[in-house]
């Protein structure tokens, strides 16, 4: 295979018509340039130049190779410039994944910041639950993901990943306005026994968390409606069709739905950023800082709101 040095020698001798001038441009001796050209001719079995004591003249093969050499060397120079810009954190990629409610409440700030301040960065977003985004980070298909775990359904994440806690969000019981418990400031989870429940699919951590919470209250929930749409539980509760448990990031404003906060250190959903521990991507720290800022704003907003009724 031809080397860049050989290609440079052919290109510059054809362009200048002189071994001496080409050697000066390349920083070599005329003898070294001549040796490079001879090595190409031997390797390819074709004469590239007609030589005389006072000049060199390219053959048709020499002209053709010089044209290709110019294009190839330009591509190599472009690749070098591109890689230098990666090293200077001017280019690169940030492929981000997140579950729906964090994608709605936390991720837009990251996407907006990078598209505004770093337009040359390849920024992409993919929605998915931790079951899909965590393997994608491990395999390098995503650089960063926002994931969750319920306090009563903890996970052991892969050892090659680093998790950064962003937010510990409370869980809320949703009941329709006028519900038998909506006027009380404090209730027991057991008071919800006998209710019709609205929940997410059975194979989700949200469904498993509901089972654990109700077991603490001494009953098994009667789940009549299952959905993976975060908006639908609010509408079903508003219509008086049942009650539901929803984490803070998924809350929607509705005057017809009453919120009761679940008390207890395990009645939370923890939100993490996850990345490969050895990933040198220069954009990850900045993205995580922006996610933290968005999460801190949610924490601060909660502290300024009136405290809702509590279920213990």
From TrEMBL:
<dbReference type="InterPro" id="IPR000847">
    <property type="entry name" value="LysR_HTH_N"/>
</dbReference>
<comment type="similarity">
    <text>Belongs to the LysR transcriptional regulatory family.</text>
</comment>
<feature type="domain" description="HTH lysR-type">
    <location>
        <begin position="2"/>
        <end position="59"/>
    </location>
</feature>
<protein>
    <submittedName>
        <fullName>LysR family transcriptional regulator</fullName>
    </submittedName>
</protein>
<feature type="coiled-coil region">
    <location>
        <begin position="62"/>
        <end position="89"/>
    </location>
</feature>
<keyword id="KW-0238">DNA-binding</keyword>
<dbReference type="GO" id="GO:0003677">
    <property type="term" value="F:DNA binding"/>
</dbReference>
<dbReference type="InterPro" id="IPR036390">
    <property type="entry name" value="WH_DNA-bd_sf"/>
</dbReference>
<dbReference type="GO" id="GO:0032993">
    <property type="term" value="C:protein-DNA complex"/>
</dbReference>
<keyword id="KW-0175">Coiled coil</keyword>
<dbReference type="Pfam" id="PF00126">
    <property type="entry name" value="HTH_1"/>
</dbReference>
<dbReference type="GO" id="GO:0003700">
    <property type="term" value="F:DNA-binding transcription factor activity"/>
</dbReference>
<dbReference type="InterPro" id="IPR036388">
    <property type="entry name" value="WH-like_DNA-bd_sf"/>
</dbReference>
<keyword id="KW-0804">Transcription</keyword>
<dbReference type="InterPro" id="IPR005119">
    <property type="entry name" value="LysR_subst-bd"/>
</dbReference>
<dbReference type="Pfam" id="PF03466">
    <property type="entry name" value="LysR_substrate"/>
</dbReference>
<keyword id="KW-0805">Transcription regulation</keyword>
């Amino acid at each position: 295979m031809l080397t860049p040095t050989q290609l440079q020698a052919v290109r510059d001798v054809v362009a200048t018509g002189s071994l001496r001038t080409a050697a000066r441009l390349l920083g070599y001796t005329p003898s070294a340039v001549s040796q490079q050209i001879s090595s190409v001719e031997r390797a390819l079995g074709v004469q590239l130049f007609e030589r005389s004591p006072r000049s060199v003249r390219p053959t048709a093969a020499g002209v053709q190779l010089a044209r290709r050499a110019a294009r190839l060397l330009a591509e190599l120079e472009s690749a070098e410039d591109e890689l230098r810009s990666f090293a200077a954190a001017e280019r690169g990629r940030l492929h981000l994944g997140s579950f729906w409610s964090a994608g709605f409440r936390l991720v837009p700030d990251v996407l907006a910041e990078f598209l505004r301040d770093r337009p040359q960065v390849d920024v992409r977003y993919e929605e998915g639950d931790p079951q899909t985004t965590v393997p994608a980070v491990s395999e390098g298909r995503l650089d960063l993901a926002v994931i969750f775990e319920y306090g009563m359904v903890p996970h052991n994440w892969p050892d090659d990943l680093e998790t950064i806690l962003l937010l510990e969000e409370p869980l809320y019981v949703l009941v329709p306005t006028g519900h038998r418990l909506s006027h009380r400031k404090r209730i027991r989870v057991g008071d919800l026994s006998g209710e019709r429940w609205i929940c997410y699919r059975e194979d989700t951590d949200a469904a498993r968390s509901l089972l654990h919470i109700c077991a603490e209250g001494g009953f098994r929930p009667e789940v009549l409606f299952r959905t993976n749409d975060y908006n639908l539980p609010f509408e079903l509760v508003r219509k008086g069709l049942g009650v539901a448990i929803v984490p803070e990031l998924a809350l929607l404003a509705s005057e017809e739905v009453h919120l009761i906060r679940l008390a207890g250190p395990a009645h939370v959903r923890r939100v993490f950023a996850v990345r490969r521990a050895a990933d040198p991507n220069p954009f990850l720290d900045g993205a995580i800082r922006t996610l933290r800022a968005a999460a801190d704003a949610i924490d601060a907003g909660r502290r300024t709101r009136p405290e809702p009724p509590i279920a213990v």
